[in-house]
């Protein structure tokens, strides 16, 4: 019975698109994770693990746990040394409420893994508008503003009207009832009347960081 | 074959809940509308017709059209004399964009039918925040602010954080794609983190006015 | 690596909109809750915590648990002294069935925190109509009636036709199958033919109380 | 190229389940309808056509139009002689609002086609409860009450608590916004806390009449 | 602080609509259940409890557990003596697959509580059609056939074409993926082309039994 | 301003996957269709056009209309000569009701375009089971049975239990209310308990024919 | 009280449609599973159990566990001897990512149970296109390619354009946010512009294998 | 009666966020459009109109039509002179099929209005993969690739794996059945496993262009 290996890491992805292979751990069995970490360890690879929950992390063999820089709040882990600091302008990661921080931290950790300087600003939801208005100058200076918000996700619409920066919206699954696990925040961001707001999947802080990185890379490639 | 009359107006509704019978015209045949206007005309009744589209209005018999004060934009018509002006504080009706005006006008026309003073303020969507911030004092003075917005409906969240007034949100069917005929605006308002925001059905300017009227009546009933 | 504090309480909200900062605890980690209670305790602040489930409550440090007046049924906790009793007319909180009581109790507890007198009336669903009809006079006297119902949520439609009061509908997640976690109750309330019924998010008793408070404040501000 | 006839009437259905073949005309081309009426005319068959809209009816050949007893409001047509009057107790068809009458009339016309006595009662929505309470005795006498309602469809829940009769709920597509073409009325009826309420597809007055007929037939078959 | 009792049993429901009060236990706390059983025990009342899961049952005080005839599969319990056997014709409860039995058993247990004779026939899904065709005579003799099916719920459509009986469809939450917790089975039943099929909420075997009882009562009331 | 030609026909698709390029006409402008037909005419190409509605067809230039074999019922047109008849076994296309014939005819016309023999059998919905049971032998002989059904789509489940043939289900948008434009039929087919039933998009008779062709090609390739 | 046995195995299914009875274990109680295994053991039957989770498996009596060849990853178990190897061409089972392997393994195990040779190829998602392009020849040789993918499920569209084989798509519940438990993958496959792609229910690897088997059987039946 | 002007153009938006005011014409009445064009004409303003359908355009007064550069395919119009050509690198706009061109053209027209060089590449859907692979070098050189696709929207996932460029996905409403007006394409893009893909609302070519412009501006602002 011919069964091939189940896992095929895309290790030359970096040369192709400038992003390392990353491992989405949600739904992966301990056996799969162990196999991945064994292979990666053998080659001394540097990569990121996302959505690795605390229980999955706890079940890893000690030598694998020791090889990871794990952050429980954002459920991210880094295997190997992060990239050295890059000479990029600082990216801002804005968060509407404290419950959104696990997602904004995932974005920030991913950017830092790639050596990108990041400023996190939390709890600036527009129901208390003054908190945001105090930060307009910082927003206007950043090349990219990642805006993380759940519930009605009104924040990126207001931000988009205050700054010419690239705005990336990340809806979160925060909220109950009609918040519907982030579906309302997602739809509100997509329907935003703030021109040029770009949107990621619910809770996808990792993807937002990759998108920001694509922008920063485009900056660098310019003559 | 015993068939009863199809229409049974609730004419003592006013004494019971302080609101006149109103006729939702959408989906009603010309025969039904004619029957209603004949009955009402015979009794000299005062009432409001909502969602009476231009084609329905044009098909009415001339004597019925003449008996109505019709506004095509809001699709409302008034039969008989409106209520005399009441000594109520002015209600504010805010609109995010010009495409939302048919709905805000329905609210304003309903309030004026009941003799309530109204101020309409349009095109103050939060993607251009300065337009709203200029009006904060007016918002804070009004006992009730009806906030009409489509797409992502971020407006009432911001308004709710700026004033202690009663805030009634009316989502509109303005927008395309994920706006989904107003479902996103509706859900965003319901999920709003602005505490105490109350929400009506999509495009229901009439209902918002009735709600405002219930609030004004409660004011008056206080000792 | 510059990371700001994750939590920024909106402590001058009361002066702006007449409502204290409140903490939605669902989804917040123990670390976040502890940080909030530490900060608040240091300043002797008075505030409300909502959706604090029994497990979260049990995990708090004893000194934090001791500082809270916790009610497990409604998952609310009060930090500091509630507001002194206010000279407001009594608000009625109606409930269709006993399973809806956790939500109606959240509304009642929030109102009492603000010093508002409340009467709770339970188990008056319209499948047994006589239970509601006995209470019509009480309903008609109240300036605001908060109506809490799940499943098909027929109660607020009937109530809205019996009284001129301000009616606030709170759908609950009670029920199974097509009840869909409260979506049917929510939609039924929004589609109600009772004019002027205003609606909150599913299970949002806290929001209904804030809305009622906005109404009561408007009463008081009148000359 | 072997293509069979497209239409195969189920003419011995009556002997099998006691209901005649009926033709759902919606979406059928003129050619199909003409073919059906030619075949049926040749055999002198008696049957019902449903959802035959005015345009389809107008396009029929005159001899086919003449052979039909057509009712535009309910979009039903009868071909051949209706069944002779049957000695069944009177079925009640209740309607919440006048906009629901096209559907209730479809139910009533179907029952009359089968010779069943029917009483139609319209405009008894529960936002004006007194209209329904006047009719309780009639409701309690009827073996079957067909309840037709759109929007929030609160009517059948109240009816189900007032009478031991068989209650059949028919949601209608009346309403806008969250009414969602009858989905809210449908879900509200299915989630009703009135025990034993049975529900049909949206706008399916024909099906409700067939269901009522199954009940009446069961009565007759009893020893 | 005036808080009324939370629970108000509708004990004269039987005289009004011929059905006893029943308690939906899902979502009720132990305190609520205990209060209900105490009150009921004091009056020696006979009633049914539905959706009482094994954990809720196990947590009851021993004296309350002893007072109940509990069936874990259907999650039903009977308090007091069931009604004496009634002289009704036998109702058939059909089930498409064994996974649907918890729901069909709820219907059967409810009918037996009311003294109605029941025949349960399981595992007759139409993917193996011969299993159903063997039972056609039994189906045709029954005044009422309750048909319980999940997944695509094709069973009641076929049954409705084989017998003139009253057909009540109960969709179940059996299945995965697009089965969507019974939503597909529900919609398939409502869209069935079998004329006169009536439908209940997902998993609502109790409601189907109450509906069947309304039919049987109508039979008995005939002269 | 460099704008490329908008249309790039995939003319070597046949050599790659054995299927000709086909043109989905829905939503294409007259200009686009004209451009395609001009290009194709110049090369004398043979291809199929699908979802070409009567209005689009009527607006074509006469020389383009003349070059097409158009069938209004199925909205298909053939440009050039169909493929010569192939030595394949006969495919059966089953239809639940006459309203489904536009879709089944699209499948049949596509197969005939490719030279495949087809037998169409209509109006065999399972509410009148005898119509299907008469055809079981034909079903069992066919290598592929395409089953086209709307509403509750119970037909393919029953067919799948009667024959070992390859079964392809095509849901149609026939029906109203919960039929939801074919969503219910689609979901019912996907949730079917008939093992090995494969499903196409709603109304996609063309795709079903292509799938059948892939099966027939696999037969031929076998040694 | 007459209650029939709840379980009725369809043991002559094989002779009718060429597929053995299989047991969907999800949602079945231990008692039901035990009853099935007792009956089957007595007759020495060969059959497959699907969606038997690890907890259900662990709770079985040791003699039943011993009689099963259980695979935890795919949640499948085989009772009795698998079918002897058949002289069929090799079926390819493709998987987009490692998280999809539980579903592809279910398909592979089912095919092997029936003696069909299978090649599994994993981790060839189209975001790293080179992994797929290396395998084109294998894809083009296989009579049937089962393509298993979650999230946006772009894989089968690309595969369908590379090979004339029969393509069966199986969406998986892998992913989060808008992935919606596989609904997006399902809809993307159904809407694919790759002609002739056939689709199964979410996570239904078993069904895909049965569909493949129907195709292989059709091959064999050809003269 | 105090009614304010309904329209309030945000004319200093350009200085704030670098984007001119643009007018979404869908749903605006002729009166509103006329008012806007009058005001703008008086000030000689330069701006873009989007979703101006052919009927709205035809109804404008001739002087207003003459003042507009209108493109019917993309439903865009330009009032005043476009911005002079800018020294930006060329943006690529990719389209899966010809039916998607109205949306890609809206993006291209918007970019050209702002003086940005654009290359449009059409009909490169991944079901015919060779069409895309020929263009990889162009894709890799572009700083921003706007990818426009309907149905299953597999294109951007493949593109995202081929180039390090900024990738903006625009789902279109092309397709039928489960395509659901673009909802499936939208969800597939959001769930894409191509890291860093950013998504716009359905059919929102205008927004994609504004997003691209924000990226280009960020490039220029770099030291």
Task: Explain the overall architecture.
8 copies of one chain form a homooctamer. Chain A has 223 residues and is α/β, with parallel strands linked by helices. Chain A contains 10 helices and 9 strands. Chain A has helices at 13-17, 30-43, 54-59, 62-66, 101-113, 130-133, 136-141, 155-160, 183-190, 205-221; strands at residues 22-24, 47-50, 68-71, 76-79, 91-95, 118-121, 144-149, 166-171, 198-199. Chain A has a 5-stranded parallel beta sheet. The termini of chain A are far apart.
**What Rg of chain A do the Cα atoms give?**
18 Å
- Name the biggest interface: B-C, 40 and 42 residues
Number of contiguous helices of chain A = 10
The largest β sheet of chain A comes out as: 5 strands, parallel
| Beta-strand segment tally of chain A | 9
Q: What structural class is derived from the secondary structure elements of chain A?
A: alpha/beta
Helix content of chain A: 25-40%
* Mean pLDDT across residues of chain A: 91
Order of helices and strands of chain A: HEHEHHEEEHEHHEHEHEH
Strand content of chain A: 15-25%
> Largest sheet of chain A, order of strands side by side?
6-5-7-8-9
Oligomer: homooctamer
Query: Which shape of chain A, going by the Cα principal axes?
Result: globular
| Low-confidence region ranges of chain A | 1-6
From the N-terminal CA to the C-terminal CA of chain A, the straight-line distance is: 55 Å
